[in-house]
Backbone:
């Protein structure tokens, strides 16, 4: 298929349809409303359900009800809206239901702003709602990758019977780039959805629930969830290396739009004869801990610089992964401010001009 | 079976043969049975999905023998919307109490009714939060004592009880809305008719349907079952008048 120029939000919407997800619930919020506007026209063509709910609380729960049919369902929103959906996400996780929740992040906390940010990392990767659960989280850095990961999200949601979240910042949603869709979405075979509520003909009724008043039964459900997360850690870690070699002294760690800016920085520094590498986590949960430690453990790597469009959230996972093996530095802008390549370069030069080993981590905002 | 030994009353197929967990004098059990009878009589058990609420009736799935989803507090209409939209061929009902439907889930029920979602809601109104231990509900009557209004509901502080059937009936979207009661055999017979009618409207794909059933909570009202019946007659029904509030075939003037 030919490459077509598309806005991120619309490309994500089309990708979902191509992955067989034809049922969508939404509530308007900037900067992702184009997804709903695109699907309001497209879904009637493909014969699915498009419904604008009365709130994100309701939309999350419509998704919950729809997920119980066993069909592929999804919603998109942005930070404050995702906060309101946490109730339903927690219930869906507890009830082992697959659904895809796409968060085109904007600055927070509170009403925050409408410009790109990465400040929902904690919420996305650490559970978000109440209870012992996790959501599988993927973070694209280009529109093409947003397309590919959106399609993958539905597969993974079904594979684990667990909510999957794709988090992109406002830049991913609003930017236009050429994208290519596969003729047919190819995916490994999945087990039959024999858990779906389809009416109790020829079987005992199903009860899709998350209430277990017996503490031992509730603990057992938590163990079942934990087993899935351990399996994700084995099978679903995704990341990309850029210019990582025996020549680099500094390893950048960044995801999403921020990683893309870092790639520009790396290319420009290369022209100046300075070698810097990038580790880009694609799956934020499961987080590529072992893989980061492996790259950081290279003898030539003297320091790590984590860069985020937040005050330092993924930073905590990076520190946990590295566990003091090398100094970890941080640079971040937030509130909708996107660091420029020059700003990042300045941070790298500062690090290169000082003795890394003896210097404590310093947060900058 | 001999001619003189004819079965005239038995457990509906849509009810499990189990011991109830509801308190003596509570009418949840009666209402569960009415729903089960309606499901049986319409022959839809194998294509029905119930949505359980939060509260005493969360365990409705231990009694009614159909597929079930368990909703967060108040969100049953949102779950039912999502499910029914994807499976219009199935019969979907929510079973919700007054704390669930008239307080935390007010937005969800109003908008589901306003969209004309083709599912059925059984709204059980006993004027109190039962499972959490008798706190004031949006339907607690003026002066009625509850654990969070120990001096009785003071309408100057918390307003008057909400009449949901009346409020929902103001919506222009066609719907079937009726209020019935469950404290005497006569009322139960009437409630059964309304519940079956609600499911029938859904089966015909006609409209959203809601039956508000006034019920009893002797435990949290601090009354005996017999006193609770009397209290319903003397206090609940005068404030929440029984009757038909909306029919789908009503002509709209504009």
Residues:
């Amino acid at each position: 298929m030919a490459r077509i120029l598309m806005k991120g939000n619309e490309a994500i919407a089309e990708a979902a349809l191509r992955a067989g997800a034809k049922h969508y619930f939404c509530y308007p919020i900037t900067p992702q409303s184009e997804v709903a506007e695109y699907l309001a026209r497209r879904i009637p063509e493909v014969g699915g359900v498009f419904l604008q709910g009365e709130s994100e609380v309701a939309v999350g729960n419509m998704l919950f009800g729809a997920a119980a049919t066993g069909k592929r369902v999804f919603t998109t929103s942005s930070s404050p809206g995702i906060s309101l959906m946490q109730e339903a996400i927690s219930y869906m996780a507890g009830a082992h239901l697959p659904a895809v929740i796409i968060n085109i992040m904007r600055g927070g906390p509170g009403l925050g702003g409408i410009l790109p940010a990465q400040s929902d990392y904690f919420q996305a990767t650490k559970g978000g709602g109440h209870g012992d659960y996790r959501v599988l989280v993927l973070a694209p850095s280009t529109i093409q990758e947003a397309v590919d990961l959106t399609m993958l999200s539905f597969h993974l949601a079904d594979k684990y019977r667990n909510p999957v979240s794709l988090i992109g910042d406002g830049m991913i949603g609003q930017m236009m780039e050429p994208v290519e869709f596969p003729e047919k979405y190819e995916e490994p075979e999945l087990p039959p959805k024999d858990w779906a509520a389809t009416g109790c003909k020829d079987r005992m009724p199903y009860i899709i629930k998350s209430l277990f008043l017996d503490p031992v039964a509730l603990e057992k459900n938590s163990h079942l969830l934990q087993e899935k997360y351990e399996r994700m850690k084995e099978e679903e870690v995704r990341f990309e290396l850029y210019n990582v070699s025996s020549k680099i002294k500094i390893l950048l760690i960044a995801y999403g739009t921020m990683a893309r800016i870092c790639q520009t920085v790396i290319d420009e520094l290369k022209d100046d004869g300075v070698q810097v590498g990038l580790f880009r986590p694609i799956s934020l949960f499961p987080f590529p801990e072992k893989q980061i430690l492996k790259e950081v453990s290279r003898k030539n790597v003297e320091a790590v610089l984590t860069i985020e469009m937040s005050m330092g959230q993924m930073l905590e996972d990076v520190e946990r992964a590295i566990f003091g093996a090398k100094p970890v530095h941080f640079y971040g802008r937030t509130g909708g401010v996107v660091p420029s390549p020059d700003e990042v370069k300045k941070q790298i030069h500062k690090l290169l001009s000082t003795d890394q080993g003896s210097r404590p981590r310093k947060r900058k905002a | 079976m001999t001619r003189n030994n004819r079965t005239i009353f038995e457990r509906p197929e849509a009810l499990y043969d189990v011991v109830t967990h509801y308190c003596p004098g509570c009418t949840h059990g009666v209402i569960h049975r009415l729903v089960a009878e309606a499901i049986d009589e319409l022959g839809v058990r194998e294509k029905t999905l119930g949505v359980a609420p939060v509260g005493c009736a969360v365990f409705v799935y231990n009694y009614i023998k159909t597929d079930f989803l368990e909703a967060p507090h108040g969100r049953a209409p949102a779950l039912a919307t999502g499910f029914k939209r994807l499976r219009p061929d199935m019969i979907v009902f929510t079973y919700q109490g007054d704390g669930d439907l008239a307080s935390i889930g007010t937005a969800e029920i109003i908008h589901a009714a306003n969209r004309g979602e083709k599912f059925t809601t059984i709204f059980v109104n006993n004027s109190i939060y039962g499972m959490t231990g008798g706190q004031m509900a949006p339907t607690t009557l003026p002066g009625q004592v509850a654990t969070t209004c120990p001096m009785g509901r003071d309408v100057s502080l918390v307003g008057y009880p909400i009449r949901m059937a009346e409020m929902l009936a103001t919506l222009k979207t066609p719907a079937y809305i009726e209020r019935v009661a469950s404290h005497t055999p006569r009322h139960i017979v009437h409630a059964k008719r309304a519940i079956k009618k609600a499911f029938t409207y859904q089966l015909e794909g006609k409209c959203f349907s809601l039956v508000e059933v006034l019920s009893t909570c002797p435990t949290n009202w601090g009354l005996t079952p017999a006193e609770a019946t009397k209290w319903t007659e003397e206090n609940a029904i005068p404030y929440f008048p029984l009757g038909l509030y909306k029919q789908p075939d009503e002509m709209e003037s504009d």
Summary: Residues 239-352 of chain A form a domain with the Rossmann fold fold (CATH 3.40.50.920). Residues 4 and 178 of chain A are 5 Å apart (CA to CA).
